[in-house]
Amino acid sequence: MLNTLAAALLAFSTAAAPATAWQGPHFTDPPTDKIVIDVVTVNGSGCPPGTAAVAVSTDNTKFTVTYSDYLAQVGVGAKPTDFRKNCQLSLVVHVPSGFTYAIAQTDYRGYANIKKGANFTEKANYYFQGMSQTIPMSHKFDGPKDDNWQTTDKVGVDQIVYAPCGEERNFNINTELRVDAGTSNTKETTSFATMDSTDTDYSTVYHFHWQTCPPKP
After folding, report:
1. DSSP state string for the chain
2. Are 107 and 217 within 8 A, CB to CB?
3. Confidence band (pLDDT; 50, 70, 90) for 17?
4. What percent of the chain has pLDDT over 90?
5. Is the peptide bond before 144 cis (omega within 30 degrees of 0)?
6. Taking the CB of residue 144, how many other CB atoms lie within 10 A of it?
7. Could you tell me if 24 and 165 are in contact, meaning their C-beta atoms sit under 8 angstroms apart?
8. CA–CA separation, 9 vs 40, rounded Å?
9. How far apart are the C-alpha atoms of 104 and 96, rounded to whole Å?
């Protein structure tokens, strides 16, 4: 009796819904096809031309931006404008047909030598061309500090913004490092923070979040 009822319900649902009915996007594993990222523009005091590189992981779960001249500083040897450095990247992410993506987590890494009384702040946000910017997330580090630093920004599920399906829109990234001298003696000391290092692990990693797109008509 139960088997007969189940078969009848299955037959009814199959007949009632078109074979091509789209049930909405859903989270999925990364596409197996290669992801290609083109750097459209690089602007900012923290990333002069030729000092920022982008690489996609082989498993299509993240991409990394590595900087070689991203340094903010105050004190001995620093120019008045060196206390703040920023970088604005505009990228085009080519994804396989049938997929769209969002950035759900970002890891920022660098090195800092901050004297007692001084501090530095890392701030970042991103947005797709023609869409609203995400709320900037910032992290403050107080001196004294002479070590690597790392922060992780995670976006809540209800705040994740996906690229529109079937469209290639520039993905824009804005980052900033700012060093505040505070009560430190800038005539005798230097405080600095970088988003680069001789160790290429010190970089920024953006983690993809994938969804499927509706089939084309």
Report:
1. -HHHHHHHHHHHHHHHS-TT------B-PPPSSPPEEEEEEEESTTS-TTSEEEEE-TTSSEEEEEESS-EEEEETT--GGGGEEEEEEEEEEE--TTEEEEEEEEEEEEEEEE-TT-EEEEEEEEEETTSPPPPPEEEEEESSEEEEEEEEEE--GGG--PPPTT----EEEEEEEEEE-TTS-TTT-EEEEES--SSTTSSEEEEEEEEE-PPP-
2. no
3. very low
4. 56
5. yes
6. 13
7. no
8. 53
9. 19
* Alpha carbons 29 and 99: distance in angstroms, whole number: 10
| Interval 175-201 mean pLDDT | 86
Encoding tokens for residue 77? 């040897």
Chain-centre distance for alpha carbon 25: 22
What the block records as the tokens of 90 is 């505009």
Supply the pTM of this predicted model.
0.80
The amino acid present at 79, given as its one-letter code, is K
